[in-house]
Amino acid sequence: MRQLLFILFPFCCFAQTNPLLIKEIQVLEGDTFITAKLDNIDILSFRTAEEKRYYYRLKHKTLKVYPYALLAAHKLDSIQQDLEHIPRKRKRKKYVKAVEQWAKEDLAEELKKLTRWEGRILVKLIYRETGICTYDIVKDLRGGLHAFIWQQIAKIYDNNLKNTYQPTNDKEDKLIEHILIETEQIRRVKK
Q: Are both 17 and 83 inside the same structural domain?
């Protein structure tokens, strides 16, 4: 029995797959060096405990609203594709209202629970995912008057639908970008 297990054991052992892309193997003075491409790693340092606390609060809030931004980008893309196939303006309006009704029924309660800060992050992330500011999305789909009204409501809650996402200029946007890249890298490693 032992001999049978000993013979069959190597057939059920699998080598681990190495995700690294080995570029080159060099042998210098008897030492072997492997050149491989690795992902970039950003290391953050915090000067104070308050900065660290701010970062982790921002990370929590960003990861909370990011799925909504992805959903919005996906839904906007499908709406635009569907609107291309609808020839009449009246039917397009009806379709947009139906989508708006769906959003109110499915997402309104969840989105009402967001804080003001999470709302500002969501507006920026929607811009990041679509390349269009939220104000312009509302203006294109519902018209200028609706966009103006929603902009005024957003201003009451210390938000701006015309906010853009600028990770090169804005410190908070840079941290958000770092959080999203780090999360994506961790997700890739776990797979």
A: no
